Amino acid sequence: MLILMALNTPKEHIDKVKEKIISMQCTPHVIPGDSKLAIGITGPTESLKRVDFQVMPSVEEVVRVTKKFKLVSRMMKSDDTIINIGNHKIGGKELLIIAGPCAVENRNQIFEIAGQLKEMGINFLRAGAYKPRSSPYSFQGLKEKGLQILSDVKKEFDMHIVTEALNQSTVAAVAEVADIIQLGARNMQNFALLEEVGKTQKPVLLKRGLSATVEDLLLSAEYIVAQNNYNVILCERGIRTFETSTRNTLDLNAVPVIKKNSHLPIIVDPSHGIGIGEKVPAMAMASIAAGADGLIIEVHSHPDKALSDGYQSLDPQTFEKTLNKIRQLAEIVDRTLA
Ligand code: PEP
Ligand code: MN
What we know:
Blueprint: E1 2-5, H1 11-23, E2 27-31, E3 37-42, H2 50-54, E4 59-63, E5 83-85, E6 88-90, E7 94-100, H3 107-119, E8 124-126, H4 144-157, E9 160-164, H5 171-177, E10 180-183, H6 191-199, E11 204-207, H7 214-225, E12 232-236, H8 254-261, E13 266-268, H9 270-274, H10 280-289, E14 294-298, H11 316-332, E15 336-337
Residues 102, 128, 132, 184-186, 207, 237, 272 line the site of phosphoenolpyruvate.
């Protein structure tokens, strides 16, 4: 349920509404917005009656939210959520471009690629220090040492860092270095981790699970937002289907569907989405055409030597060409590139 009040509602009227919600064993959430003051209600709302709130002073409207996801839905918050990082506004007109290798492999590798990307105007560097790998025998990441390298490269090139938190015990260390904490596809429904990351109040990049529906993804985002952390960037990264000619099936349908149903920004990862470097530029373009708020792309200075996901990584030259095409496309879809 959603209660709408005027922006200049006196505090005691807001407090009265909150108290009533709590007295009915539910939780009030004051939702940021610039046209109305909105209080979302979560919990056992079935027993609440609209009239209970309609009669209260300063209440203008009481709306039942019919979707399973509440705080992330457009019904609760009609204006797009904008996430501020440095002088970037994610979810606004500017496209977010995150690029970098799958994993931190060593200091030279990260400094080399960061320098190349910065030169192209990229301000968000991705690289995993903790890697979720399908096989326990594959490279698992440099862990704490990887975080240290990311912290050093961040200072050297003044870039924002996007890196994954694999479990609850590493959230604090990752949050120290990351400007955006990545939650991987395999962890999309690790609800304890979602809550832990939500509590940091840091921006979160939440990747869609391999077999997750759009509704599952939005319900997972709800766990983070329920911690009063609205800084959630959703990410379509391909799903498992019967198709075997590509690594995953990039579900670009999800982009306009999510745009309609949620106020959160949605970006696309064409690298994992298709899994073949040569075909990544096409899907990157398609993602922007579909209305995505940005891209996360794997780029490695020497893809043939990468310790993980080399086959789907672009080399810097190919990435730069793709970036130039995206710049042209951005104009057509009324977006900009930093
Ligand atoms: C990654 O970004 O390198 C990664 C592991 O992605 P996903 O969780 O989407 O598989
Ligand atoms: Mn990867």
